[in-house]
Task: structure prediction
Amino acid sequence: MSEIKFPKDFIFGTATASYQIEGAISSDGKGPSIWDEFVTRKGKIKNNDTGEIACDHYNKMEDDVRLMSELSYQAYRFSISWPRIFPNGKKILNQKGLDFYDRLVDILLRKKIKPFVTLYHWDLPLALEKEGGWLNRDTAKYFGDYSNVVIEKLGDRVSNWITLNEPWIVMACGYLLKVFPPAFFKPFSSMKVAHNLLLAHGFGVKAVRENSKNSLVGITNAMMPVYSNRMDKYDKSTKRADAIVNKLWLDPILKGEYPEEIRNEVYRQNKKNIQDDDLKFISQKVDFVGINNYSRLIVKPVPFPFYNFRPVNPKHPGVEFTSMGWEVFPQGIYELLKRIKIEYGNIPCYITENGVAYNENLEQGKLEDHNRIKFLKDYLFQVHKAIVEGVNIKGYFVWTFMDNFEWAEGFAKTFGLVHIDRNTLKRTPKLSAEWYSNLCKKNSFNYLDE
Ligand code: FCB
Result:
């Protein structure tokens, strides 16, 4: 009864992102990204940490893949650093950058680990930011040019492509909250940013179709069920929040239209930006959607134009938080998956990220993170429930393989299955890494014991 078994072809992997692990920020001809610049701004990153070294994965890649393979992980989702391929964002190719990912793919395949490649996980070439970044429609086109080159090179071996990682976070953290680059406050241009990101997604899909006939392509979104703090009411601002956080990044792609709740504002902010066939382009067929889920969002109404909601912290008895301050809310992942089935035609989907940061330390060379194992079990239990109820979910990726540079939180927050010593960069699998290894081997886990 307590054995939770997954379908035969279900895939279990881990996920990372280039800037968070690679380091080697100017090795072999790499150009600067917006993150390379942002981390030098005073007060933006906890403890003034930077990704200059990160996990030094650029130099330790073979060892990392070997460890992944020893742990029997079946798939690996990683992202490509655009400025490694095009140091200025466009035109002049940096062959050595491309070669790095070429080698990575070969090594993964040799170890029978399935690569899932994200084309954009936030490290925009700095040169393109200087031309307007995501406020500039041309950025989407340059993303297409870059994607063409990458897919032409790797598309004979990589068969799963993700265009963008979490465009909602790019927009919210970069253009509203000022916690990620470019750190603007532009609520009344944010829908332009959204449109240009969705357009970039369209260029990514086109690049996959044109360069790798047998590949599958999708987008990865940050999704959270949205609740009202009045609990009993699904009021207007909650609906608005849901439209902006969730629907904005799926409706244009899967339904060819902007969500009704925000449509007028999208068009108002994009007067000179949206062109006639854009929605058709954005809604080219995709093969799957990726969902990143950690928690839920509870909102209260505020009298601000358009963004008429603010997050509030849950206070109910027994509420648990991670070291990020995020509420542990396993049922949310089930709610999202059901929604994909009911509202989006049960398109194949993956959990492309789920995981947790807790405060923890190595003790006598070991890290027994029972709390992380419990977290993963509770979320996976809900994923399994969705499968049983017919949701077309194909796989699950833990965020993340190893402790890494957690954006504005620097190295203070550790999400890894593998611990990294910040001084020596030594990799030590945590207990959760072994637990996940067993899950990969058996395709099942026992809910009651470890
Ligand atoms: C997601 C990001 C990922 C990581 C996790 C904790 O929003 O995609 O890079 O930072 O959160």
Notes: The chain has a mean pLDDT of 97.
